[in-house]
Specification:
The chain is an alpha/beta fold. The chain contains eleven helices and 13 strands. Bound molecules: coenzyme A (COA).
Length: 324
C-alpha cells in the first residue's frame, strides 16, 4: 500500500483591528518604547475589542484558509483548535468553529498546550491523516491573551497580543509534514502559568480576576536552551542541515530568544520569518500567523523546506519539519 502523507494545502490568519502600541503602554505602566523594542523586538500588538472573541478570530482565519484553497467547510473531516483562551469550557472550540463554518458530523476538538499548541495540533492531525482517520483537517491556533493579561504589570503586559492562524492539511502521496516532535515537562509548571480553572471552584474567580504569571528571565533561559537542542534534534533526525532550510518559522515570543537560537544554529536571521514586531506574542496563534504572512507575501514558496518551533507554559515544546 502506498504510504499516506499530509501536506499543507493552504493557510490563513486574522488579527483584531484594535492596535496597542508601545506608546500606548508608556501611558499605562512605567516603561518605554525603547526598552520594549530592545528587550523583546515588539513594536505593537493587536488586541480584541469589547465583545470580540477568540472564536471570531478563529472563524476569520479559518475562512481565509478555506478561501485560499477554494474549499468549503463540508470538504473538511477534522477540526482541531489549539488555544488556552477558549470562548467557553464546552462545547470545545473545534465544535463551536464547525458550527460557525457550517459543517456537520466530523470530529472537532480543542487542544491546550499553551504556546506549543499549534505544533501539538499539527502532530495530531498529521497522525490522523497518515493512519487514514482523516483526509482533510483544519488546524487553528487562536488566542485572546489580552483577556488574561494584567495591564498594570509591566513585565508581562508588553509581551502579549491576540490573533488566530489556520492551516488546512490534507492527505497527499508526497510527504509535506516530514516530522513532528512534541515534548513536555511539568517540573517547570510554576514558571509560566494562568492560575484559575473551573475545577478549583468559582470562589477564587469571584474574589479577583487572575492573570498570566511569569518568571521572565528563567523562561527565557530554558526556552533558548530547549529550542536550540530541539532544532538540532529535528534536523539531525531528518538528515538535513541548517543550510537546507529555506525558512525558520519560530514561535514569536521574543526577538532575543529567536536571535539566540539562530546564533546557536548558525542560521542567518534573513531566513527567519519574523512577525513579532507587529503581532507580539500571540501564543499558539503565532506560528500559523507568521506562516500565512510569509506565504501571502511570496517569501514562502511551494517545495521549500520549513522548520516550525514553539515553546510555552508547562513547559511544552515542539517542532515540525515541513516540505511546503
Ligand atoms: N519596562 C521597563 N523596565 C522593565 C519592564 C518594562 N516593561 N519589565 C521589567 N522591567 C525591569 C525590571 O523591573 C528589572 O528592573 P530592576 O533591574 O530594577 O529589577 C529590569 O527591567 C530587568 O528585568 P528582567 O526581568 O531581568 O528583564 P529581561 O531582560 O529578562 O526582560 C522579559 C524581561 C520579560 C522581556 C524577558 O525576560 C522575556 O522575554 N522572557 C521570556 C518571556 C516569554 O517569552 N514568555 C512566553 C514564553 S512562550
Amino acid at each position: 500500500m502506498t504510504p499516506v502523507h499530509a501536506r499543507i494545502r493552504s493557510t490563513g490568519h486574522c488579527v483584531p483591528e484594535r492596535v496597542l502600541t508601545n506608546q500606548d503602554l508608556e501611558r499605562m505602566v512605567t516603561t518605554s518604547d525603547e526598552w520594549i523594542r530592545d528587550r523583546t523586538g515588539i513594536e505593537r500588538r493587536h488586541i480584541v475589542s469589547p465583545g470580540e472573541t477568540n472564536l471570531d478570530l478563529c472563524e476569520k482565519a479559518a475562512r481565509s484558509a478555506l478561501a485560499a484553497a477554494g474549499l468549503e467547510a463540508s470538504d473538511l473531516d477534522l477540526i482541531l483548535v489549539a488555544t488556552t483562551t477558549p470562548n467557553q469550557v464546552f462545547p470545545n472550540m473545534g465544535v463551536l468553529l464547525q458550527e460557525r463554518l457550517g459543517g456537520h458530523g466530523y470530529p472537532c476538538t480543542s487542544l491546550e498546550a499553551a504556546c506549543a499548541g499549534f505544533i501539538y495540533g499539527l502532530a495530531v492531525a498529521n497522525s490522523l491523516i497518515q493512519t487514514g482517520q482523516a483526509h482533510r483537517a483544519l488546524v487553528v491556533g487562536g488566542e485572546t491573551l489580552s483577556r488574561i493579561t494584567d495591564y498594570t504589570d509591566r513585565s508581562t503586559c508588553i509581551l502579549f497580543g491576540d490573533g488566530a492562524g489556520a492551516v488546512i492539511l490534507e492527505a497527499a502521496s508526497e510527504p509535506g509534514i516530514l516530522s513532528t516532535h512534541i515534548h513536555a515537562d511539568g517540573a517547570y509548571k510554576d514558571l509560566l502559568y494562568y492560575p484559575s480553572g473551573i475545577s478549583q471552584g468559582f470562589d477564587r474567580l469571584r474574589e479577583s480576576v487572575d492573570f498570566i504569571q511569569m518568571k521572565g528571565s528563567e523562561v527565557f533561559r530554558v526556552a533558548v536552551n530547549t529550542l536550540s537542542h530541539l532544532a538540532l534534534e529535528t534536523l539531525e533526525k531528518a538528515g538535513v542541515g541548517c543550510a537546507d532550510l529555506s525558512w525558520f518559522v519560530p514561535h514569536q515570543a521574543n526577538l532575543r530568544i529567536i536571535q539566540a537560537i539562530t546564533r546557536k544554529l548558525g542560521l542567518p536571521l534573513e531566513r527567519v520569518v519574523l512577525t513579532i514586531a507587529e503581532h507580539g506574542n500571540t501564543s499558539t496563534a503565532s506560528i500559523p500567523m507568521a506562516l500565512d504572512v510569509a506565504v501571502r507575501d511570496g517569501r514562502i514558496q511551494r517545495g521549500q523546506l520549513l522548520l516550525f518551533e514553539a515553546f510555552g507554559g508547562g513547559f511544552t515544546w515542539g517542532s515540525a519539519l515541513v516540505r511546503y
